[in-house]
Write a sequence for this structure.
RNA sequence: GCCGAGGUAGCUCAGCUGGUUAGAGCGCAGGAUUCAUAAUCCUGAGGUCGGCGGUUCAAGCCCGCCUCUCGGUACCA
């Protein structure tokens, strides 16, 4: 690893349609920041790139809903996000945005080069066009009736009621949400990146040459590669984004996934220009190590699509590693922006001012490295009180207070070493290598634990040497003990620099010293005899139960609000006539047989006695009912529905079900237990 | 269903190419100690390594089947 001349470290670009929360921090920015701070401490040439992803349809929708421009939306959130990262000490060399001039230029040129060299395929397809608004409609801008559940407010990409993913062309009675008019089908041309052509290359590069990637990342890539890659559109009909820079592409922009990763390059260019440096070696020299820190939702883009783009361009190096983390849950539930189930960074600092490092510590110690992890406030409190306060803060305080007490703050001289001193120093020296090994293999939790071992070592050293006793009989011996204790404290300021930068700054204040570099970690001559240290203060404070309860209550409030929101009944459907209703032939029926349809999760194949006949019905209820439990059940069945084949079985009717907001299903049955075939009206 | 990742002490996790009594931190119990934010230090209890079968002199690690959790994908007339 030390062979690389320079390092280019990127962290996923957060989408600028909301603030950032602890999940973002734990999954991407804390690990990236730890890694980068470590490299800088070693004196490496490293650039740490961040920025906001500001294009794409969701931002335009948010803007429309709030009656402001997309630019207003991204300005607002870019500001909030950038500020949060700054406050938490995420030490980007540059934090820019994809709406910047530099980025538009860089992304355009990237596209132009690939286009000129024939790296894209062009395809024409039919898409919906709004003649009033004079533009093609993104999937999300089209609403209509879901062909599956008849929800009249399904979007062009998905019906939120039944969860089915849709194509706009599937919708019945499509409507443009821009003008309300009925959209028309119109031909449009788009450019595609032929990922399939890189399949063999990617297989070799990832599956053979990068077996060291994390199992979750490697496995996900393998899954994609094994199932075969397909050409992917790189442009969209939309007005918000980087315009497609070729003739006749009016009203078309680069698709966000194509534009966003180029943002890493653009932001590097911006940084280099400001520093008067050349950006190219960071992206084009084989002796540079490129590392992408991401969450698991971004694996395919960073491991397959972006590398394929870089390769097509030809000038670029490919990532050396893509440490992708899993997700962080909050109190046993998925973090959700829309449900406000999150700990927002800007709110955290209002409730816990100056406690950035506590959160950095807890998130680093509990990082979702190998599987989804859970953040709980109780754990947060325990780690603060039992680890940061009791082990780390306490040791620094002990050695500082004793130094004041015995020597008026002057570092005593190191005298003759006992065997135990030597053992302790050996232990101290060994920690550097352990932390390095962990960091270089992206095991951040483990690295943090190794750093904590240093504070534990300090506490143990004091407990075993007992300077407060020895001082009464052998003052010379105590000088050596305190010197070693202070050297350990100084070492803590180095070891924790990547993890807890605010705390190490405080230690330096207490010790009255400047910053050391990483290579000095393990040294026992960091503080010369006679050096005067400052008056000590506490590094960490206990967090009381009441503060934790307040946070729990805050979350419970969100939960209650959500439940209230969910229990509101969906709006009434459009009026219809009685004649329409009488067309429905609904009967009571009895389930005679039931079995799971093979190779499906939700489907049961039922044989139903309708009073008229016995017919087969396929029903998506397997998640609510077990086949063997519903035999003999009385149900309501819609008989005169056109038959339809599902998974090769002809379904001749539909069982009526009630569904609550959790998606649980229940049969509609007659309370008087009528015979099968009774008419329901 | 298919693909991927997981299921190891009460909790959060290590366990690298299979090798002696399965580890760490927190929590818990007992003891020591008082310089320190009742903090610290020592000792200890606690695990049929998701289940069943197999390969092997030897398996938490390899193979097969099953099961549960998370993610992707298919599926709900």
């Amino acid at each position: 690893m030390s062979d690389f001349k320079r390092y280019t470290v990127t962290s996923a670009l957060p989408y600028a349609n909301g603030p950032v929360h602890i999940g973002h921090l734990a999954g991407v920015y804390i690990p990236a920041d730890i890694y980068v701070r470590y490299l800088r401490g070693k004196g490496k040439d490293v650039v740490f790139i961040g920025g906001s992803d500001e294009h794409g349809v969701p931002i335009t929708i948010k803007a429309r809903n709030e009656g402001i421009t997309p630019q207003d939306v991204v300005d607002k959130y870019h500001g909030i996000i950038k500020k949060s990262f700054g406050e938490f000490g995420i030490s980007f060399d540059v934090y820019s945005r994809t709406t910047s001039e530099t980025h538009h230029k860089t992304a355009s040129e990237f596209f132009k080069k690939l286009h000129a060299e024939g790296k894209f395929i062009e395809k024409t397809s039919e898409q919906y066009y709004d003649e009033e608004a004079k533009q093609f409609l993104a999937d999300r801008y089209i609403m209509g009736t879901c062909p599956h559940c008849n929800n009249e407010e399904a979007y062009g990409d998905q019906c939120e009621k039944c969860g089915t993913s849709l194509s706009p062309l599937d919708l019945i009675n499509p409507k443009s949400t821009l003008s309300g008019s009925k959209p028309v089908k119109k031909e449009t041309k788009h450019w595609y990146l032929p990922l399939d052509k890189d399949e063999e290359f990617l297989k070799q590069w990832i599956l053979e040459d990068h077996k060291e990637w994390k199992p979750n990342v490697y496995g996900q890539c393998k899954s994609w590669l094994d199932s075969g890659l397909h050409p992917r559109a790189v442009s969209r009909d939309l007005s918000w984004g980087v315009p497609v820079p070729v003739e006749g592409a009016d009203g078309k922009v680069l698709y966000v996934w194509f534009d966003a990763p180029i943002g890493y390059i653009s932001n590097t260019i911006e940084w280099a220009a400001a520093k008067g440096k050349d950006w190219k070696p960071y992206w084009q020299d084989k002796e540079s190590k490129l590392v992408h820190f991401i969450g698991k939702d971004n694996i395919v883009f960073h491991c397959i699509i972006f590398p394929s783009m870089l390769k097509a361009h030809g000038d670029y190096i490919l990532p050396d590693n893509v440490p992708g983390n899993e997700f962080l849950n909050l109190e046993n539930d998925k973090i959700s922006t829309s449900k406000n189930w999150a700990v927002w960074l800007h709110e955290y600092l209002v409730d816990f001012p100056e406690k950035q490092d506590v959160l950095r510590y807890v998130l680093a110690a509990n990082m979702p490295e190998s599987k989804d992890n859970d953040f709980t406030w109780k754990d947060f409190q325990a780690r603060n009180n039992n680890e940061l306060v009791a082990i780390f803060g306490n040791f620094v305080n002990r050695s500082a207070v004793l130094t004041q007490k015995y020597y008026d703050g002057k570092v005593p001289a190191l005298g003759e070493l006992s065997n135990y001193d030597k053992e302790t120093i050996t232990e101290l020296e060994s920690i550097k290598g352990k932390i390095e090994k962990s960091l270089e293999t992206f095991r951040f939790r483990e690295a943090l634990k190794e750093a904590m071992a240093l504070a534990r070592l300090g506490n143990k050293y004091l407990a075993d040497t007992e300077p407060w006793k020895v001082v009464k009989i052998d003052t010379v011996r105590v000088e050596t003990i305190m010197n070693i204790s202070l050297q350990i404290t100084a070492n803590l300021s180095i070891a924790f620099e990547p993890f807890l930068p605010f705390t190490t700054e405080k230690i330096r204040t207490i010790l009255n010293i400047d910053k050391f570099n990483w290579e000095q970690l393990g040294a026992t001559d960091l503080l010369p005899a006679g050096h005067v240290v400052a008056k000590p203060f506490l590094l960490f404070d206990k967090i009381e139960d009441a503060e934790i309860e307040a946070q729990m209550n805050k979350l419970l409030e969100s939960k209650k609000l959500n439940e209230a929101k969910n229990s509101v009944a969906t709006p009434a459907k459009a009026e219809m006539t009685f004649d329409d209703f009488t067309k429905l032939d609904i009967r009571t029926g009895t389930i005679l047989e039931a079995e799971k349809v093979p190779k499906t999760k939700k489907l049961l194949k039922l044989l139903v006695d309708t009073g008229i006949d016995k017919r087969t019905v396929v029903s998506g209820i397997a998640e609510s009912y077990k086949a063997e439990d519903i035999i003999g059940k009385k149900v309501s069945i819609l008989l005169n529905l056109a038959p339809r084949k599902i998974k090769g079985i002809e379904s001749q009717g539909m069982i009526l079900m009630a569904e609550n907001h959790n998606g649980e299903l229940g049969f509609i049955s007659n309370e008087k237990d009528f015979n099968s075939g009774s008419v329901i009206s």
About this structure: The domain at 578-680 of chain A is CATH 2.40.50.140 (OB fold (Dihydrolipoamide Acetyltransferase, E2P)). Residues 222 and 319 of chain A are 17 Å apart (CA to CA). Chain A has four domains: 6-111+257-325, 119-237, 377-520, 578-680. The two ends of chain A are 75 Å apart (CA to CA).
